[in-house]
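Re-run with default settings, no changes from the original entry. Doing this only to confirm the output is reproducible before filing.
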Amino acid sequence: MRRALAVIALSVTFAPAARAAGDPAVAALQSALLVRGLYAGPLDGLRGPRTNAAVRAAQARAGLSVDGIVGPQTRRALRLRPFASRLLHAGAAGSDVLALQFALAEHGFPSGTFDGGFGSHTDAALRRFQQWAGLPADGVAGPATYAALRAPPPRVPIALARPLQAPITERFGPRGLRFHSGVDLPAPMGAGVVAAAPGVVTYAGWLDGGWGLLVTIDHGGGVRSMYAHLSQIEVRVGDQVQAGFEVGRVGATGDATGPHLHFEVRVRGAAADPAPALSP
């Protein structure tokens, strides 16, 4: 039976800080170090201690000056091609393709594994981003696409109530060689999941691709929230819901290793980090 739960305050007085966006060129560098067995961290695009140590190890292995600076000689040793230095399209490969994949993911259009190969998934993600950015969706990454990718990633423009009173254990962003396009909140099987903001239910059912039982709510202005891996759905398409209204129950359907809620927010189709907009 569907029921309204206590509405969670929508004020975001102490919302989580925005995640630091990574640099696509650094992600490509990390990948080159990874395949050489010098780096074991995530491809997050951030120059932290592990990346710096791996650069120095690569320089020592190549007989270069060990200064930690990725200059021309280090780039040649690692076979790094500068990002945005050529047109990229289906069939291309290299470190700059991986950088493109990373940049697309950071802007809400992940294409699967960061592998440096411009295949069908990268082509589809690029075309979706180009359409989102108001560019011709031709599947060719050129100057206009690179300029659009230099803009800040989209942000969630509305305040969100917490869909579940649980800590975030998997955040939005790079995860290993892939990109996590939402946040995960673990909870006991059957725990109630509530709408994060007022809106209209536009999807309520099973969705292939790892989602399992899924509810999607349209909040207007191009903003949609998605509640995945549910064990039970308690709304129907067309239902109008308020923040705090129970829409389903925690489960482990689809691609899930245990009971949790995968919570995702799309802004005009681009996945955006929901954490900064969530109430405490």
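Residues 49-61 form the longest helix (13 residues). The helical segments are 24-35, 49-61, 72-78, 95-106, 120-132, 143-149.
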